Hints:
Layout: H1 5-10, H2 30-41, H3 46-54, H4 58-69, H5 73-87, E1 94-100, H6 106-119, E2 124-130, H7 143-146, H8 148-151, E3 156-162, H9 174-183, E4 188-192, H10 199-204, E5 209-215, H11 227-232, E6 235-239, H12 246-261, E7 273-276, H13 285-301, H14 304-331, H15 333-347, H16 353-365, H17 371-374
Parallel strand pairs: 1-4, 1-5, 2-3, 2-4, 5-6, 6-7
Amino acid sequence: MENNPENKNRKGSSALKVNKGIPQPSSLNQQAADSYKLKRRRMLSPEEYVEGILAGDRVMLSRAITLIESSLDSHYEAAQKVIEQCVSYSGNSLRVGVTGVPGAGKSTFIEALGNFLTGKGHRIAVLAVDPSSEISKGSILGDKTRMETLSVNENAFVRPSPSAGSLGGVARKTREIIILCEAAGYDVVLVETVGVGQSEIAVHSMVDFFLLLMISGAGDELQGIKRGIIEMCDGMAINKADGDNVNKARIARSQYENALHLFPPPSTGWSPKVKTCSSVTQEGIPEVWEMIKEHEHLMKAKGHFEDKRNRQQQYRLHESINESLKSHFYNNYVIREKIIEVEKMLATRQMTSFQAAKVLLDTYFGNDNHQDDKQ
Length: 375
């Protein structure tokens, strides 16, 4: 059988014959990749960042924000120079803070309002502060995935930022980021809070209009929010006023309007208003924007607009001092060693928390007699 010539002819022949394929071009643009790697390796100068920001380059704006958010000491000086050069180009936007109870649809509302405003010729920057885990310090940063249409809009810039454990979950660098966005030409800046208590206070200190977003049919609405938040808000919007919720939203609107009348009128002369809207059907979104613009016109006409921004600058001044002192205290090498010792004494109940704090502060200032306090 093996010497059969027919079998020899069959060897090496098969119906499953594969022809040599055509060489395919690489899916990677090597030149662009090399250029990108070069840019990534090379630290840009503050002037290059500022030039890109003023030109409206969203990629450069994102890189500058990353530089500002960086905790590296080597980035701090460059970040401050970028901010300083952008300050003179900032201040021309309308800053709107958006807060609300969980499930109120803040991200969906912001996307609906953002798309409406870009359709009117505005350029929108959305600073969506994402809550960081107190355990892992990680963030989901999901706002960019929820705002699918707005995040790809050429006239919009969506930047989710981790709260990084700062007061109330508000990103520590949000004010500086607002300056960069204004320098980049965005005339409306929307700041979304994570809605976890003290974050509203921090956001209120950096915006011109503070909007409280609510929903109807979620139990006792008036008991569901804090009195302090209602007193801070410049306007309210009952979201999800569509379908079966339309009548419920109208009832909730009446309840909130009655509740707002119980508060003393603000010294500015502006009385907070309540609107109903739907982020899905877009109904009521133009009316909410009209309310915001009406507030702006009144505040500017009476001089309260600039006064509020000046007070916010003063608030930021004192907050910056507190942050610097806190950072300097905990980064002091003597304190780092002393605090371990004090914490062990706390665990064994050898001293109280107040006594431990006094020991650390006395160590830090190096003055047990508090002579500076007497002076």
